[in-house]
Specification:
By secondary structure, the chain is of the alpha+beta class. The protein has a 5-stranded antiparallel beta sheet with strand order 2-1-5-4-3. The relative contact order is 0.13.
């Protein structure tokens, strides 16, 4: 192992100023364990971040493999994320092939991943709030790695720290100014700030009650809020709306 310890990684990840810096640090320490490739994915939607499910949110897998994987919709056939729904423990890709009866499509994904230079793969499921599921896949371009349970536990610790640091920075990035409300969303939220009900707002701006609920749900998702008051407070703090302007 290299000199970049888990404790050092945790400290530097917590002090990182950007998601790019956290990803770089994560990639560096994984190399100490023989893994020079990793892929961080959101297996399910993450309302807490305002992000949809997506494969390879951050990754250094070969670009041609990532494009091929997406073009063939392999996220629906890949047995690795499917198995992640069934366990919270880290597991090797090889163990899936040994313990599960894989369909032809799943076998093809695994075979083609090896052909793409992703060898001795390991998966780390990460379960968050309200059933949100993320995961980190890691692999070696040279192979020859046989991680024992102790190593898998260390890799899980590293993946969890990466996930926490990444999501905290993502939240900060969005809070600083990456949240965009449409003019209609701002108009509705301004009336919400004035204490108007959904039905009254619908009458004021001339749309249906269902349309108001649609826009409010979008606002809640963007602001990571689950109710009107919290959404309003966040929007004011981000200077997205100025309630005093409502006439």
């Amino acid at each position: 192992m290299g000199s970049f310890t888990i404790e050092c990684f945790i400290e530097e990840a917590n002090n990182a100023k950007s998601t790019q810096e956290v990803a770089r640090l994560f990639g560096e320490i994984l190399k100490d364990y023989g893994y020079d490739r990793f892929c961080y994915s959101l297996v399910t939607d993450h309302p807490s971040l305002g992000l949809d499910a997506g494969h390879g949110i951050v990754a250094n897998y070969p670009e041609d493999w990532m494009a091929y994987y997406k073009a063939n919709h392999y996220e629906k056939k890949d047995p690795v994320p499917q198995h992640a729904f069934e366990t919270l423990r880290p597991f090797t890709w090889e163990s899936i092939q040994q313990t599960r009866e894989l369909k032809a499509d799943a076998k093809r994904v695994m075979s083609e991943a090896r052909e793409a230079g992703l060898l001795e793969g390991v998966a780390i499921p990460i379960c968050g709030h309200n059933g949100e599921l993320a995961g980190v896949g890691m692999a070696s371009s040279t192979g020859g790695i046989r991680p024992d349970i102790g190593v898998l536990r260390k890799l899980r610790t590293l993946a969890m720290e990466f996930h926490l640091a990444f999501t905290e920075l993502e939240k900060k990035d969005r809070a600083v100014g990456n949240v965009h409300l449409t003019s209609r969303e701002k108009e509705i939220l301004l009336w919400v700030a004035e204490g108007k009900s959904d039905s009254i707002i619908a009458d004021i701006i001339g749309v249906s009650h269902a349309a108001i609920r649609f826009h409010l749900n979008n606002i809640f998702k963007k602001l990571n809020a689950n109710e009107r008051t919290l959404a309003t407070v966040k929007a004011i703090r981000l200077v997205l709306i100025l309630p005093s302007y409502v006439r």
